[in-house]
Request: fold
Amino acid sequence: MSQQKQTLKYFNQNAKNWEEKAGSNRFSVIDNRHKAVLSVIKEYKETGRLLDVGCGTGQLAIEAAKNGWKSIGIDYAASMIEISRLHNEKNGDIAEFYCTSIFDFTIPKAEYTVVSALGFIEYISLDELDYFLSVVSEGLKSNGALALGSRNRLFNLHSLNEFSSLELQLKTVNWLFNESVILQSSSTQQEAINKLAGLKYQYPHPDLHPETDIKVDRRYQYSPADLIARLTRHGLMPTRIFPVHFHGFPLSFIKKNNLSILHLELAEMISNQYINSHEVVPFCSSFVIEAKKI
Reply:
């Protein structure tokens, strides 16, 4: 598909830039998402097996391996895997990395304690997402967890840009608003998830999306309620929603007033101190949702 061809081309050409972002001392979305997955991993008293789908330059799999986990990272961009293996070699070859697509990778039944997929599902079709969730559900052990990252559709209410206008055209604004209110008004994660699960929205997804820095025409966005419905159909019970990349200022205001450093400091604070705070999810451009194998 053209979507996958564009995606593969982009990540093969930008692996070095991805590595720099992942290893930066400043806030990065990559590191924020990794903190969410590491929070999932830390819930297990015993070490287990991690599969990181779309592993990028390998930092998450290696970090989990440093904590005693058997870690495997896969990515179909050869340049990403090349860098992952270099990092792995510097750390004593403690993880495994394979250049392959998840759709060509064999996952034995009940093999993994945690499967992570960050910056992945926006680049596959809705049918492929459904297939991916069924494969992951089969591959997780009982009480194993999927940590699934997504671009946050709720943020389109806050960004006030072309993505917001698209939601107006699709007539989804009221649905997104209701989700945001639930996240803001719920006192616990479980209360928020239970209420979101009851919405049962069937969101329309556009064929093309407004242009971003990542040159792929179709990058799907999901709301928490949308993913909750998809996950539960495959026996995966959502348990937590982690905020990723908090925005404390309007996007145009940041650029106009040179507030990028303060913006990053606020995002870093949320990442470090409020990684479990569902209330700030509507103001984040991404999120990670944890779902346990029933």
About this structure: The mean pLDDT is 92.
